[in-house]
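User: For a benchmark we're assembling, each entry needs the component sequences followed by a predicted structure for the full assembly. Here are entry 17's components. Please fill in the structure.
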Amino acid sequence: MRETPLSNCERDFIKTAIAEKKRIDGRQAYDYRHVRVSFGVERGCCMVNIGDTRVMAQVSCQVVEPKQARPADGTLYINVELSPMACPSFEPGRLSDFGVEINRLLERCLKESRCIDTESLCIVAGEKVWEIRVDVHVINHDGNLVDGCSIAAIAAIAHFRRPDITVSGDEITIHPASERDPVPLSVHHMPICVSFAFFEQGKYLLVDPTDKEEKVMDGRMIIGMNKHREICTLQITGQMLLLKDQVLRCSNIAVVKVTEITELIHKALENDREERAKGGKYGFAESVPKNKVTSNHKVSAPVDMETVEDHVTSTFSQNDDVIEIDSDAASTSESDDSVVIMDKGSGAIGLGGPSTWNVDDEMSELKEENKSNTTKTKQQKSDTNIVVSIDDSSEEETTEILVEPSIQKQKKKKGKV
Amino acid sequence: MAGIELLSDQGFRVDGRKANELRRIQCRLGVFTQADGSAYIEQGNTKILAAVYGPHEIRGSRSKALHDKVLVNCQYSMATFSTGERKRRPRGDRKSKEMTMHLQQTFDAAILTSLYPRSQIDIFVEVLQSDGGNYCASVNAATLALIDAGIPLKDYVCACSASFVNDKPIMDISYLEESSGGAELIVATLPKSEQIVFLEMNSRLHEDNLSHVLDMAVKGCKDIHDVLDQAVREHVGEVAAISGLE
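Assistant: Structure for entry 17:
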């Protein structure tokens, strides 16, 4: 299915925003989106979320004959699948140009940089070696697939355990997990790819482009690096002409980003290891946050909203009918995020602002009238003791019977004289 | 392969070159009469043929036509006898497809594409013998073929590879040096303005050394530019003499 093209006004908007150093989702030029790494129940299964981009990787192994050129080396095979589930423009089956690019990039980044020790995968030289296969599936495409795939692949490789084997003469016994603990792969280093998007012939530079930014960009540079500051792969795609110092600048930025992401992967691996050791629950079901009412965590938007009100009031006051923005209500509702238990079985988050329906104004006016009436009647009662007021149960009507006070006074006067 | 010394103490490599020397380049323009432009280049033991057809009407799917630019269509294939072992799939495997895409991007950036909207330029590259530096020699051959075809370019596109051995950057690496596991940096530039059109790096290289290796590769591109320029001027001189222009 053909992708819907980006409209010209969207394109111009994004370009002008970037020229003013603003991104449409509120990030800074060198900021990554929220990256989450989670592991599944099976060993070697990893899911990575970069913002809305979701990628899943699974590692598996089998015993095969080695290549003739290298009889004592195991093999690492990487495959990236772009399924139509991720983006309607991905076709099933035949690998598109983009798919070939991602596949080759990951191959170069992981295989040719020797991230795992292939010699340790040898069982019997020349006859049997382990073949490690990494399958990466893209589940949702919202820009920057290369980074997501590389993080998922290397995290899955680090998480994977292969079965233990014993070689006795000509026989090889592969021990299942129940007999002997599986053995981790020996990972030399963790190469991570960082993508840079270029705009205006290399003038503006963004890290981690989203889908829309990718459609507008001139070209892209992908740097694969590990935390020891070794560049594992470098590639420039797209039709742009760069200068040498731009390349060096990008590699400096990449160093910082790669260290952060490697930390994140290590932390996730640690958490998973602890959970498994404790015997607690682990896997995707536990790592997905629950969306129930009782849990109140929301990912705060990075967009700065403070200047929006001033902007809006200034634009609206130019019109004839001024719409008042209840800024107080908005701010209190943000801070008032705690759950309030009203009654047994019912709770509320936030108490709501004042009512803005006009009907209630009339109601309150009526209420005030009644209140003043009842006070009046009470006063008259204390003065003359004659006034009888009959209050009905409804507040809307009161019936009052007034007895003339003047006759009474004359009677009193007569009494005195 | 660990036993072979890539850079000796006296500074000589396996084929006798110094660290900053290119392999011997021999090239010819106009080798085919059928194609609009063609070229043959020998860079050391790597032998590559390139042919250019165009600009002509879009063949095949009209939907690929670009309304404001020319469509650059590349095809890269290796002859089955080009490598040490006989290669069964010369086209359509991943490495060839990747190489095709890289060539297309490179020339898309170098050709003045806005001059021929709704048209197509075909670039065909065939590797007859592969001894390392396939991409570089392909780019150089395609540049010569485009010049032979008379298609306007921003500048010559020259490509060169560089590596890092024994803490020294070396220029224009051969297959032996490639496969012994060192870092390989391939750069295609427009030599006069030193703008980088394409950059690719394989294997591990420490970030501190990137600058030196990149410098070496860009210098290599400049040297190749001198060689190609001379070849083009000779060819133009011959053609002019034959057609009686002088």
